[in-house]
């Protein structure tokens, strides 16, 4: 699963190499408005006649991609690192399948670590009951639930949650690396 995702991550990193140099921030407040220069991107990469990439750039998914990933100050991730710093590595691996597979496996491992930062907690096993445990007499039946007490606990929890400050994610925002300009990529 992660290796397939890593392959697509590399593919989109190759397709969109240098896209940040074709972004123009028009307005910052109240919500940023970002414009992507498709013609400049395609022209500098020598892909004006490429129907597939033109259709990708004209699609709604790419518009969402630009609005989400266009701001210069946001939380960075693995894709940003690939587009900004791994351009030469991806180019060098084009004719060398073993190196490409090694890189895909490294990316897959990083994707796995991102989703499961504490694998020992995420994959905790519940021990199986011992054989014949259901036949033991000394095990008490599950007690009846007191509906009044349940309501009290719910009200206490709601009162505590209303007075607590809102929870925030621990993502750190940073300046997104621009990577090399589009003119350095000429694709066939």
UniProtKB/TrEMBL annotation:
GO terms for cellular component: cytoplasmic vesicle. It comes from the Eukaryota. SMART domains: dDENN. GO terms for molecular function: guanyl-nucleotide exchange factor activity. Transmembrane segments: none annotated. The gene is Sbf2_1. InterPro entries: dDENN_dom (IPR005112), DENN_Domain_GEFs (IPR051696), Tripartite_DENN (IPR037516). This is MTMRD protein. One of its GO terms (biological process) is regulation of Rab protein signal transduction. Residues 1-76 form the UDENN domain.
